[in-house]
Design a protein that fits this description.
heterodimer; A: about 600 residues; mainly alpha; 3 domains; two-stranded parallel sheet; 23 helices; about 75% helix; about 5% strand; globular; B: about 475 residues
Chain lengths: ~600, ~475
């Protein structure tokens, strides 16, 4: 068993290194084989429990890995998505530049994600977690020429969050006296413990892509290769971030129901849901729109975990897996649209439904899932979260249901303008995507349906045991009120869409009335000024700081280049002047010096 | 046995002047150089035990006591090297044959005086031999016999006379206090009485006399004039060794075997040291005359030695002895460079030089080595001694002095680079089209000295363990 844990890390890593050097023809097959092998190993570990410990750096820093039901499940999910993305890329990425780097980075990322998921030592976790930062940079960078600023943005934002996490790990080490994750058991009471918890949570939710650490994701959607979006921000980052968030708030710390931190976490979730979906609503690009939803959906998971209720936490985990499924699938549909139609700009797309029927069907299934429409998987996870949120406070439920309403509206808009209606431009010979791209889409769409239909089994058999003593949890009886409310909201979204399309004759403008609504308009105005983006605000602040430092630098330069040489020259000049050459003066100096020295000694 | 170091130069000077001039004019250089070389070889290759194993014939005869310890050995070695360099420099830069002969004789007498100072065990003979050196140097400085040379010699004479008065008065006081002038007698008397008013007065006066002789600020004013007017070869001797004997060796000898350091004296020494470091470095900045700049630099470097002595720990003493050796070598090297430059360009004004690096590459390189060593750049010799001094100051809890010592190194580097740029870098100055390397003898000399600086810097552990550490041990 021990070998398998190490293999999960070293096999993809070695394959990634190979991919960097192998010739083009061998590379794709090798990458696919490595991803498949990883999936196979992960599957064989499913539900198992084992550990592996090797001495590493000393001081309690051991190379310690542990797999148990939860991490095995997440590792399996990650392996599955990685395999699908690699399979998809063999067709989608063909003829793109930097392909060797792409496969290399993807496989090494997979290795590091496995390492972070399996780590049972905070330093080992941090090692893999930070390593992902470099790969994140590399993967965005190879997108296109203009991707550099985005890569830097992603690097800086994630780096700052990781720095917080590093501080949190240091504090936790001090508080708990150990680095072994499975041995840490702290409460969040007390300023120091609270700080440590918040710092760790910042690391986790920034990896998951919650506000305010999200702003690189939409930029990356445009700049990075699309496979990357389906791979990291849509699935593996979410898995890793939410996994760690649950480990923090459920295992390492005991987050108390109704405590300040719990409410703060739920508030972050609520704000993320509402704000991100509002921004998503007005996007006019397929990928960018999806990326804002990737942010928004994170809010549900965080809110669910923040409730500290078993229903909420399990709902959060379920939503994590559901979201990874449909969001990576949705990105894959965006990829096939991009590849086949040549653009993802919604103003230029239209009527693709008849040309690309399989893609369209997959899209429809997953759009219904993300909107929370029964009986697809998104419906069940959202219902659990609604349930828990309502128990903690009406406001959280309202935020969640509002998010659902807007999600539905924006997907109606997206689907309508891309797949239905008249074709706006592009050639008539747009065809269905090739099989290597269709298979992953079909698999994810099918998974959405399966997870929805088998939700009770998945929740009770697989997910509930993750919570340990609360493992005897059973799915509550369906709350008919909430289900009816959900359906009403979805219908409202549909009716709104139809009315607006009739009014504007343009599916793309169907959500503009929300954009122009009185109060909401002000929110958009702020968002458009980039107030919502802490990176931009940070850049502005940095600009001020830079100017201040430059000013200071000039002053220091003045001290070195003007003041000190000036003083030196003045002093030297005086000194030179007093050396007049008159020996009488020199005698006076010598005698005066002697008298002073003797007097000093006699004192 | 050890009195050979005194008798041999004395006898050589006597015999050279008694024999017919036709013979001696040609022979003089070789005799003197041979003596210096023999001294260097004897000191470098024989341990301390060798010297104390044989009875000294001269002692009973003249009623003088000579003895050798680690400090004396370092000093004797430095003396030998500097004198050798001086002789070579003189041979190639002084063109007039009779002057060169006189020069060689005077150097021999200085060698005798310095050797005696380095070995004597009583205060009065120390004074006498110091005067022997001084008188030889008056003549050496005035050797050119022009107005400037006479003026420089005169200033040295006057200030040296003041020093003489102070030291003689002090010796008289010591005699009064202890009934003898030998180091051990005075030491015993002072440690018994504990040092009353008279003892302190005597110490102060003697120290001031040494300060004048060593050219420490504010007693330094004669030094730049003397250097700039003396023949460059005499400057080599003056700066390389003569100011270091009172400034470093005698001070070290006094505070260890005549009157022990007390906190007040430590403060005085450290203050004078730091003051000299700053005044010397600042003074060097403003000079246009290469030799004047080096003279100020000399003031500054002797200041480091005195600062280390004032610190008073064994490590500081070892550093002081090391710096004595290193600065003797690097100053000698720089003044030999001055010899070359003066010989080739006919001027010592740096503003009139320029671009000589292409014409005199070896001089350029060796000058750079000497200047960088003086500024304390690793891994050259000067770095280690300054480093040890600063380390000792930090250990002794004198961070302020240590900081000043470090900052002054920056000043040293500053004027060293200014000097290098003015003389060697840039385009060739007008009227220097004929400049070339200054003859094989000088080139070999400066290369050898530069190599010593580099070798000591790289193999500093050998030097430090074999010569410098014994100094620190003997002293305590």
């Amino acid at each position: 068993m021990m070998h398998k844990l190490l293999l999960l890390i070293f096999l993809p890593f070695g394959a990634g290194l190979l991919a960097l050097v192998l010739p083009r023809r061998l590379r794709e097959g090798m990458a696919l084989a490595a991803a498949a092998a990883d999936l196979f190993i992960a599957a064989s570990l499913f539900g198992k429990d084992s550990a592996c410990l090797m001495p590493w750096l000393g001081f309690g820093i051991d190379f310690s890995l542990r797999v148990y039901n939860f991490s095995a499940f997440v590792v399996f999910a990650a392996a599955g998505f990685a395999f699908l993305v690699v399979l998809y890329s063999t067709s989608f990425m063909r003829a793109k530049p930097c392909l060797g780097q792409f496969y290399g980075y993807v496989l090494i990322s997979l290795s590091f994600v496995n390492g972070a998921l399996l780590a049972d030592n905070l330093i080992v976790l941090l090692f893999f977690w930070e390593g992902l930062l470099i790969l994140l940079f590399g993967l965005i960078r190879i997108g296109r020429k203009e991707a550099y600023p985005t890569a830097i943005k992603a690097f800086v934002i994630s780096g700052i969050a990781d720095l917080c996490m590093m501080a949190g790990i240091a504090l936790t080490w001090r508080l708990a006296g150990t680095l072994a994750i499975s041995k840490i058991n702290l409460s969040t009471d007390g300023a120091l413990a609270g700080t440590a918890f918040v710092l760790l949570v910042i690391g986790a939710i920034s990896k998951a892509g919650a506000m305010p650490f999200h702003s690189w994701i939409p930029d990356a959607a445009e700049d990075a290769p699309l496979s990357f979006m389906a791979f990291l921000p849509a699935s593996l980052d979410k898995l890793l971030g939410i996994y760690f968030l649950i480990r923090i708030s459920w295992d390492m710390f005991k987050l108390q129901e109704g405590s300040f931190l719990s409410i703060a976490l739920m508030s972050v979730g609520a704000l993320t849901i509402v704000l991100a979906v509002m921004v998503a609503l007005v996007q006019k690009d397929y990928k960018r729109l999806l990326s804002y939803h990737a942010v928004s959906q994170t809010g549900y998971m965080i809110m669910g975990i923040g409730t500290c209720l078993p229903a909420g936490v399990i709902g959060g985990i379920f939503h994590m897996i559901n979201h990874a499924t449909y969001k990576s699938g949705l990105f894959l549909t965006a990829g096939s649209v991009e590849k086949q139609a040549g653009t993802t700009d919604l103003e230029k797309l239209g009527g693709l439904g008849s040309r690309m029927p399989v893609t369209f069907i997959c899209f429809t299934v997953m759009a219904l899932s993300i909107s929370g429409c029964p009986p697809f998987n998104g419906f069940f996870s959202k219902e659990l979260i609604y349930d828990a949120a309502l128990e903690r406070g009406l406001i959280f439920y309202l935020a969640a249901i509002m998010g659902s309403l807007l999600t539905a509206v924006s997907f109606l808009k997206l689907g309508h303008s891309a797949y239905l209606g008249a074709r706006r431009s592009g050639s008539a010979d747009t065809k269905e995507a090739p099989a290597a791209m269709l298979v992953p889409m079909i698999v994810t769409a099918a998974a959405c349906v399966m997870l929805g239909l088998g939700s009770r089994f998945v929740l009770e058999r697989w997910l509930a045991p993750f919570l340990g003593e609360a493992g005897a949890w059973h799915m509550p009886a369906a709350n008919i009120m909430l289900i009816i409310l959900t359906i009403v909201v979805l219908l409202a979204a549909l009716i709104h869409h139809l009315l607006r399309v009739r009014a504007t004759q343009d599916a793309l403008k169907s959500a503009d009335d929300i954009y122009h609504a009185p109060f909401i308009r002000a929110v958009y105005a702020l968002a458009e000024k980039k107030y919502a983006d802490p990176y931009e605000a940070g850049l502005a602040a940095m600009g001020l700081l830079t100017r201040a430092l430059a000013w200071l630098d000039r002053k220091i330069d003045w001290v070195y280049n003007v003041a000190i040489p000036g003083m030196n020259n003045a002093f030297c000049g005086r000194l030179s002047a007093v050396h007049s050459g008159y020996y009488a003066v020199y005698i006076v100096w010598a005698l005066a010096g002697s008298i002073a020295a003797v007097l000093f000694l006699l004192k | 046995m050890v009195s050979l170091f005194i008798l041999a130069p004395f006898a050589a000077a006597l015999i050279l002047n008694l024999l017919p001039k036709a013979l001696t004019h040609r022979l003089a250089f070789w005799v003197a150089a041979g003596l210096a070389l023999a001294q260097a070889a004897l000191v470098a290759f024989h341990p301390l035990l060798f010297w104390s194993a044989y009875p000294d014939p001269l002692g009973p005869f003249f009623n003088l006591q000579f003895s050798l310890d680690g400090l004396s050995l370092v000093t004797l070695l430095s003396i030998a090297i500097v004198v050798l360099a001086t002789l070579v420099a003189g041979r190639y830069t002084i063109t007039e044959e009779s002057k060169r002969f006189n020069f060689t004789n005077l150097v021999l007498i200085t060698l005798m005086g310095m050797n005696a100072v380095a070995m004597t065990t009583d205060l009065f003979s120390l004074y006498v031999f110091l005067e022997v050196c001084a008188i030889a140097l008056f003549i050496l400085i005035a050797l050119k016999k022009d107005k400037l040379a006479l003026e420089g010699a005169f200033k040295y004479l006057i200030l040296s006379a003041i020093a003489t008065v102070l030291m003689l008065f002090s010796i008289a006081l010591f005699l009064l206090l202890s009934g003898g002038v030998s180091f051990s007698v005075i030491y015993g008397a002072l440690s018994g009485s504990g040092g009353g008013f008279l003892a302190k007065l005597a110490m102060g006066l003697f120290l001031c006399g040494l300060f004048i002789k060593a050219g420490l600020a504010p007693f330094h004013a004669w030094l730049p004039d003397a250097h700039s007017s003396a023949p460059s070869a005499a400057s080599v001797l003056l700066s390389g060794m003569v100011t270091k004997i009172p400034g470093a060796y005698i001070l070290m000898r006094l505070v260890t075997s005549v009157f022990p350091l007390n906190p007040q004296m430590q403060n005085l020494l450290m203050f004078v040291g730091v003051f000299s470091i700053i005044i010397g470095a600042q003074g060097a900045f403003y000079q246009h005359n290469f030799k004047r700049m080096l003279a100020y630099s000399s003031v500054s470097q002797v200041g480091y030695i005195v600062l280390a002595l004032g610190c008073g720990t064994p490590l500081a003493f070892a550093g002081a002895a090391f710096h004595l050796f290193n600065d003797a070598i690097s100053k000698t090297l720089l003044f030999v460079n001055a010899c070359c430059l003066e010989k080739e360009t006919g001027t010592v004004d740096m503003d009139k030089m320029g671009g000589l690096g292409q014409r005199m590459p070896i001089t350029n390189f060796s000058c750079l080595v000497g200047a960088f060593s003086a500024a304390g750049l690793p891994p050259l010799a000067g770095f280690w001694s300054k480093f040890i001094i600063i380390l000792a100051l930090m250990q002794a809890g004198k961070p302020v002095y240590a900081t000043v010592a470090i900052l002054a190194s920056i000043l040293t580097l500053g004027y060293a680079l200014v000097m290098q740029r003015k003389i060697f870098f840039g385009g060739l100055a007008d009227g220097l089209q004929q400049a070339k390397e200054a003859g094989i003898g000088l080139v070999l000399l400066e290369s050898a000295l530069a190599l010593v600086v580099i070798a000591v810097g790289i193999g500093f552990a050998f030097m430090y363990n074999n010569f410098m550490l014994p100094v620190g041990e003997i002293v305590f």
